């Protein structure tokens, strides 16, 4: 958990809260929070990430699948 | 690199033309996962009568799939051998491709080969070695080898912190992977000393 928090805080400070890498670290932190049983904070963290991702993807076109569906990938 | 692929594909075409057609059909749809049902259930994709006959025959289909794997897999080795940075990026993409294709063991095998070879020709802190190594760690974890993956990630994190600093994106990526490792390992054992 400590490493996840540290990665998120560094990324937010260095790259800003809406930067894709920051959002990836935010999601990773939420996963850690959920695994640790802190479901409410995890949900809040994920909702914030969804809001930021939605705002960024509606602001500009993004690469997607040919059939328009969302691509599901691992954290890599 | 392109020449190596061409030779491999030409050989496949000579040895089993249907296997080459099948590979071409799959490459057209890649990197999306391709269900075998697409070829086997109506309405079938009808590429050629020869392929239709192969798809109807499980034995011939399995032989074609095996031949694709055996013939084409040596081609990526030339990417890992190349001293050009762009070709090394391609090698990392091939590692990722194996993973997303669903061939986790192939992914690990190729990643091991890449990391071992690059360690003989690049410095240990080279960002491309450390990227390939993190892919190796990731796939090791996916295969259940948690301790192996964690050790590789910890090594990558140390090297990145020392070489590019704590604020670099690569370092942060390694930090997230190390965090995943710790989560996967579970809580530290508590002392049971009496």
TrEMBL record, chain A:
- Residues of the region (Disordered) are 50-76
Q: InterPro entries annotated for this entry?
A: TPR-like_helical_dom_sf
Pfam families this protein is in? Answer: TPR_12
Output this protein's name.
Answer: Tetratricopeptide repeat protein
UniProtKB/TrEMBL annotation, chain B:
| Identification of the protein by name | Uncharacterized protein
